[in-house]
Design brief:
The complex is a heterodimer.
Chain A: H1 6-10, E1 16-20, E2 26-30, H2 31-34, H3 38-45, E3 55-56, H4 62-80, H5 89-102, H6 107-120, H7 123-137, H8 142-148, H9 156-168
Parallel strand pairs in A: 1-3
Antiparallel strand pairs in A: 1-2
Helix pairs in contact in A: 4-5, 4-6, 6-7
Chain B: H1 8-26, H2 28-44, H3 48-53, H4 56-87, H5 113-120, H6 149-166, H7 171-188, E1 203-205, H8 218-221, E2 225-227, H9 248-252, E3 261-267, H10 276-286, E4 287-297, H11 303-306, H12 318-327, E5 332-340, E6 350-352, E7 354-362, H13 386-403, E8 406-412, H14 419-426, H15 429-441, H16 444-451, H17 456-461, H18 467-472, E9 478-483, H19 488-494, E10 501-508, H20 513-526, E11 527-535, H21 539-544, H22 547-551, E12 554-556, E13 565-576, E14 588-596, H23 604-608, E15 618-625, E16 629-633, E17 639-645, E18 650-654, E19 660-664, E20 675-679, E21 685-689, E22 697-698, E23 707-713, H24 722-729, E24 737-743, E25 760-763, H25 774-777
Parallel strand pairs in B: 3-4, 7-8, 9-10, 10-11, 11-13, 12-13, 13-14, 14-15, 15-17, 16-18, 17-19, 18-20, 19-21, 20-22, 21-23, 23-24
Antiparallel strand pairs in B: 1-2, 4-8, 5-7, 6-25, 24-25
């Protein structure tokens, strides 16, 4: 979990920063939440993102960014406690419930989320989404994996390559 | 459970046993009162001067009575609820813990023997001294007869159990036991229903009043515990939750239960079986294909101490339990040790620790590689908690070591229960529309992140997606092969790329020297972080016939030049260490269940000493055979842990930076004491569970020693070893912490052998400056 410095969190209860998505939408959000992103944290610690400036995020569109921020806002209080060692069971359960709901979305959104989480270096979100995608692959046959992930049925040429591979790594397909 | 009709005889038995239970509860107050009377009699016998000194005890006994009556009031309330069930009242009952209003009792006294008995003295109040909670009646007189002491204990045990399961004070124990289980469940079934909870401390009990032993103060002993810490009906636990009273075997061997469950969790349960094999068989039967069994708990078989002589009780060692589970299709994934307590009084000076053995098990086809986050899983016998395990080893060698350990098992198979749901999703239009493009747009390191969450087999399978994907899995920096059926997998997977491995985790249930030789050199080249190799099975072989594994030839450890941590549990394969080469980055080495050849090419001491292991900080060597002598000269070593070096004749350690040293049971009991020379001037902590004789053992100067852990026997044959303990103690002039494990040999401790397997840790404060005072603190029944 990317925990902001606790000193930073105390320094003005609700310091806000502005983030600008690739399609020029502005998002105003608490610095503590934005700081879940390792990338943003550095800028914010330097005093960036305040006032009219805003931090441009050319790699993230507004739909994805709003989703990312939803995650950050929810997780910020726990992260502020240094990964929430003293969070109550209630809080943890609530976060888990939130996480499960959160990734219950279309695959295309899921992929843009993982990309954004990667660019912004939001560790918790990266692993959450990665795990979700992994769950879609887990325990499936080759054809099921292709279909689940939206790959078209293989051409004869591809099929031949697949077969060769499956022969070489037979143990993985037993 | 359903349709089964009970014969009259069975019902009579049911009623009989129910009666016994109720009688035990109803007897609670009387039995406790007898104890208080006994204390008072003892007090009266004191000479007047002593009495004066302890005058406050009289008050304490009155307070005890009050606590007892409060507990009794709670018990009576609980019985009332139960009575409603028994009498067949239709009145709805929220749940036993949540209802404080005395539910109107409407027993039909002619209905059956039990209700008749209840009605007898319905109006008698249990105790008039209780102001807040007045019991409505006390169903007692008929039941008072013949409550055996064991039942009295059981009731008290229940009261303590309430703390464990329902009070805030039990949170630590619950976290220790249930958390590993829940974490495993969450990992395997992430989308289970989970809901939030709310507080409700409705009831108060005084669970610790029945023992005067090891109380730091009377107030600790008399302290109140409120419960439940969460209100069950608000916790969402009740939704989709059902309880089934009855015998596990009877209830779950019904056909309707076959393949009905995704997961079975057993906690402190397996050892309650008359026939443990039957339990395991039933668990395997009720599980769906690909189901999961998670088990945590000791193997502290009950029947031996409590049941009648002709009661059946099959008491297997952990090793045999694993064997049986394996037979029924379970395959071990990971095993581990946890340390926990059971209904322990936190503020007691004496804490019985149960060391738990944690096993992860998976079904044959699956090879987990990804998500397990606990890096320590394979390393058992590690850290300070090992004091107890090696004590057992000292008295009984290895077999008892395992019996005393609790066990945690997780069993899984490759076919997930969520496949059906996912299939539906696969046919979604939008998934097939943009799926491939979006996914393939992701950079390699993100795809690797996804594959890290998968078993290695699933990761390899993604190769079918495209040419690019055929490369992605080979980039994985972590490879976890749970249980490997065929070590050719390993060679195949390891030689697929040269990407440095942060973590390589192999569970090989049947490692042969040749098969290891096929992949270890590749591993030595690739591992830049941690290697864990566990050879599961041959512990049994080692116990049965030690010749066999030496016939299997010698396995040579290649030199891991880049690895930082190596953990090998070899099931007594014969190991030879490389005669040359430097383990340049190795900081941590753990070897256990290893056999050496007397005349092997390399020398273990030479390998782990500074010239060839310049960074080594932590070294543990456990359960070793065939090691004649070991000489360690290390500039870097900080932690050294030597246990059960059977047959060793000489141990020399020169480690100027060493902070923490453990030496335990390293020699056969009847063997001549080996020569031990230790030079560790910076040592802070010494754990010594081993005979001590100053003529052959030289500890050198240890001026910085802060903590000494050792043991002595309280009863029994080990008593003579206490001389050694005293001699060891006399080596040190002053020390901050002494942890003295008191050993009770079985059959001598109280009348309950159930407790005899535990070691009691007595922590003797932090301040005792000399040796004369600590013994004053030791207070044991």
């Amino acid at each position: 979990m990317a925990a902001p410095e606790s000193g930073d969190g105390n320094n003005g209860a609700a310091r806000m920063v502005t983030l600008i998505s690739s399609d020029n939408t502005r998002f105003e959000v608490e610095a503590a939440a934005a700081s879940l992103s390792q990338t943003l944290q550095l800028t914010i610690l330097d005093g960036g993102g305040g006032g009219g400036d805003g931090i441009p995020l050319p790699n993230v569109d507004s739909a994805t960014l709003s989703k990312v921020l939803e995650y950050c806002i929810k997780h910020a209080p726990a992260a502020a406690n240094g990964g929430a060692p003293n969070a109550t069971a209630v809080d943890r359960a609530e976060l888990e419930r939130f996480d499960n709901e959160f990734v219950n979305i279309d695959q295309s959104v899921l992929y843009s989320l993982i990309m954004a989480a990667h660019n912004l270096e939001i560790e918790g979100l990266q692993s959450l989404v990665a795990k979700k995608v992994a769950d879609m692959i887990k325990g499936k046959s080759p054809m099921e994996i292709r279909r689940t992930l939206g790959f078209p049925d293989p051409t004869p040429e591809e099929q031949a390559e697949m077969n060769a591979h499956m022969l070489e790594y037979g143990w993985a397909y037993e | 459970m359903g349709e089964r009709r009970y014969t009259e005889q069975e019902e009579a038995l049911e009623i009989k046993s129910l009666r016994r239970i109720i009688a035990a509860y109803a007897n609670y107050q009387d039995a406790a009162e007898r104890d208080v009377k006994r204390y008072e009699r003892s007090f009266k016998m004191l000479p007047p001067a002593h009495k004066e000194l302890l005058f406050h005890l009289g008050l304490k006994y009155q307070r005890l009575r009050w606590c007892i009556s409060m507990n009794a009031a709670f018990i009576m309330n609980m019985l009332e609820d139960e009575e409603d069930h028994i009498a067949g009242c239709s009145q709805p009952v929220d749940n036993n813990l949540g209802t404080s209003q005395g539910i109107g009792v409407s027993c039909n006294s002619d209905k059956d023997a039990i209700t008749a008995a209840y009605s007898e003295d319905k109006d008698r109040t249990a105790s008039s001294s209780v102001e807040n909670v007045t019991p409505h009646h006390c169903p007692s007189s008929l039941f008072k007869l013949n409550v055996p002491p064991i039942d009295v204990d059981k009731v008290r045990c229940i009261v303590r159990n309430i703390v464990r399961d329902w009070a805030e004070e039990g949170q630590k124990e619950r976290d220790e036991c249930y958390k590993p289980i829940l974490e495993e469940l969450n990992r395997l079934f992430p989308s289970r229903n989970k809901q939030s909870t709310q507080e409700a401390n409705e009831w108060t009990i005084y669970p610790w009043i029945h023992s005067n032993c090891n109380s730091l103060s009377d107030n600790d002993q008399l302290r109140a515990v409120k419960f439940p810490d969460i209100h069950p009906s608000s916790a969402g636990i009740t939704e989709g939750f059902s309880m089934c009273a009855g015998d596990f075997v009877e209830v779950y061997s019904e056909e309707s239960q076959d393949s009905a469950w995704d997961a079975v969790v057993t906690c402190f349960f397996l050892d309650t079986a008359h026939n443990i094999v039957e339990y395991i068989e039933i668990i395997s039967k009720v599980l769906k294909d690909g189901g999961v069994w998670i088990n945590l708990g000791p193997l502290l078989y009950q029947a031996d101490s409590y049941g009648p002589d002709d009661d059946m009780s099959i008491e297997l060692s952990l090793e045999d339990v694993k064997k049986v589970a394996y037979h029924y299709g379970f395959v071990m994934e990971v095993e581990n040790m946890i340390e926990t307590t059971y209904t322990a009084n936190m503020r007691s000076m004496m804490q019985s620790m149960i060391q738990s053995y944690v096993d992860h098990v998976c079904v044959a086809e699956s090879i987990p590689c990804g998500i397990l986050d606990n890096e320590e899983e394979y390393i058992s016998f590690k850290g300070p908690e090992a004091v107890q395990s090696s004590f057992s080893a000292f008295t009984n060698d290895q077999s008892s070591e395992l019996v005393n350990q609790s066990k945690f098992t997780a069993i899984r198979s490759s076919s997930g229960g969520d496949v059906a749901a996912k299939r539906v999703k696969a046919s979604d239009d939008d998934a097939s529309a943009g799926g491939e493009d979006c996914l393939s747009a992701l950079p390699d390191d993100v795809l690797v992140l996804i594959l890290l969450c998968l078993y290695i087999k699933d990761a390899v399978r993604t190769s079918v997606l495209s040419r690019r994907w055929r490369r992605v899995w080979t980039l994985l920096p972590v490879l976890r092969f749970g249980v490997v059926r065929d070590s050719r997998y390993l060679s195949s997977a390891l030689s697929a790329s040269e990407v440095p491995l942060r973590n390589l985790h192999v569970g090989d249930p049947n490692a042969f020297p040749e098969s290891l030789a096929a992949w270890l050199p590749t591993a030595a080249r690739r591992v830049s972080g941690r290697l864990v190799l566990v050879n599961f099975v041959p512990k049994r072989r080692a116990a049965d016939g030690e010749m066999e594994e030496s016939q299997r030839g010698t396995f040579e450890l290649p030199c891991f030049e880049t690895a930082t941590s190596i953990c090998l549990r070899l099931g007594f394969l014969v190991l030879s260490v490389p005669p040359a080469g430097v383990f340049a980055r190795l900081t941590e080495l753990s070897l256990s269940d290893v056999r050496f050849h007397f005349h092997g090419p390399g020398d273990l001491g030479d390998v782990v000493s500074s010239p060839r292991c310049p960074c080594l900080q932590k070294l543990s060597i456990h359960n070793v055979r065939g090691l004649d002598s070991i000489t360690i000269n290390s500039e870097s070593l900080q932690l050294l842990d030597l246990k059960n070096l059977r047959g060793v004749r000489q141990v020399s350690i020169a480690a100027p930076a060493l902070k923490d040293l453990t030496l335990m049971c390293s020699f056969l009991p009847d063997q001549k004491l080996p020569a031990v020379n230790i030079s560790a001037p910076q040592l802070k902590s010494l754990k010594w569970a081993h005979p001590y004789d100053p003529s052959s053992i030289h500890l050198g100067s240890m001026e910085h020693l802060q903590t000494l852990s050792t043991f002595c026997f309280v009863y029994g044959d080990g008593f003579k070893d206490n001389r050694a303990c005293l001699m060891l103690l006399s080596q040190f002039k002053a020390i901050e912490n002494l942890i003295l494990s008191l050993g009770y040999l079985p059959d001598l401790f109280w009348h309950k052998t159930a407790d005899a397997d535990f070691i009691f840790y007595v922590e003797l404060g932090g301040k005792a400056p000399t040796w004369s005072t600590p013994s004053l603190y030791i207070s044991v029944n």
